[in-house]
Amino acid sequence: MKNEELYLQNCRGLIEAQLHWGSSQYWQNQDYENLSELIFQKTKVSLSSTTLKRIWGKVPYRGFPNIATLNALAQFAGHLNWAAFVASEPLPATTHPPGTPSEQPQPAEPRTWVKPKLARAWAALALVTLGALAAGWFFYSRPRPLRFAHVKFSSEPIALGVPNTVVFEYDAAHSNADSVFIQQDWDNSRRTRVDKFAKKFTSTYYSPGFFRAKLVLNDSVVCQHGLLIGSGGWLGTIDQSPRPAYFKAAEIVANGITGISPEQVKAQQIDLTSGEVWTSLHQVGGQMRLPGDKFVMEADLRHTFTARNLVCQKSRIVLWGTDGVISIPLSIVGCVGELNLYLRDRQLSGKLHDFRRFGVDFQDWANVKCTVQNQRLQIMVNGQLAYKGDFKPGIGQVVGASFKFLGTGQVRNFTLKPL
Fold first, then answer.
1. Do 29 and 176 fall into the same domain?
2. CB neighbour list of residue 201: distance below 8 Å, 6 or more residues apart
3. Is residue 136 scored above 60 in pLDDT?
4. Is 131 a member of any domain?
C-alpha cells in the first residue's frame, strides 16, 4: 500500500473515532449523507455522499482524492490541512512478508582487507563529516520564529449582491514570513498565496453571507475582519460547485411567496433526483442589522420536492451573525435522528437529543419562530417548543437569513426584528 493510501486510511480512522457511529463497515447511505452535511457545516466544503463512499471504499474507485477533498477531510479531523495532517501522522516502518526479496538470503560480498589504522582514520573522518552535516541541517531546517510589524489588512466589495469581487489591501512586507496568504473565510481551502511585497489582491465571492477574511503569514493568522456579502434583496441559488446558479427576485417572488420550483431547477439541466442538490433562498444585508442578544425571527416554509431518495425533505434556516450562525434543521418526523442543530460553535446531534419537534409534515406550511433574549434561545415549531437553552455568547449582530432545501422549497411571512 502506498504512503498516500496509508495516510488516507489513518484519516478515515480518526474521523470514525470522532463520530462514534461504530465501524464504517456497517454504515448505510444515510450515514454518508449525514457525514457530508457535518463536513460542510464545519469546513464549508461540500463533499457529496457519493464522494465519501468512494473514499471509504463503498463504491469502486481506482483514483485518489484531489487536494481540496483531502484538505476538507483533514480539517474535519481537526488539522489545518492535509499537509499538516500528514506531518502529524508518522507512518509505521514498512514491514515485508516472509519470502519477499528483502528477507531472502543474499550471497556474501567478498571482503576487502583494510589496514586497521587506515580504517580507523576513515571512520573518524566519516563521523566528523556526518556531524557537520547534521549540525548544518539542524541549523537551517529549524523553524524560525515569526516576526512582523506594521501589518495592514482591509477589504472593500466593489458590487452589490453576488457574485462580488472584493479588493483586499494588505501590507506584509515588514515580516520574515516565507509565504503570505489571503483566506476568504474559515474554509482553509479558500486560502490563496499572494505576493509578500504586493499591496492589493482581489477575490470573488459567489454566495451571500457574513465571512471572516484572514491574512495568514506562514501558518499563522495575524489579521482578520468581518466581511458582509449581501444578497441585494431576495436571491435564489442552486448550490453547486464551482459556482451557484442564480435566480433574481422577479423569478422567485410571487403573491407573497418566495421559492424555487423543481421546473426551474430542471431548466438548468440539473437532476434533483440525484439526492445531492441543495437550493437556497437568501435575504442578507441591506437594512438588516439587529442586535444578536435581543431579536426574534419568524417564517413559514415548505419543502416542495419529493423523490424516493429525498423522502426526508431536509430543510434548514441559517441566521447569519457577525460572530457566528444559528442553523435550525427540519425534516419529516421519521428522519429527525439525522438532523443537527448549530448554535454558534455548538453542534447538537439528533442522534443524542430528542429532536421530534423539528419533525414536520411539509404537505402544509411549517411555522418556525426563533427568539433570543436575556442570554436564552428558544425555538418554536408549529407552536410547540422544539429547543430552549442558554445562549452566550451570542452571534453578534444579525445580518440576514438563508433558507436551504435538499431539493426545492418556499418561504412566506418572513420577519426578522429586534425585541
1. no
2. 167, 168, 170, 182, 192, 194
3. no
4. no
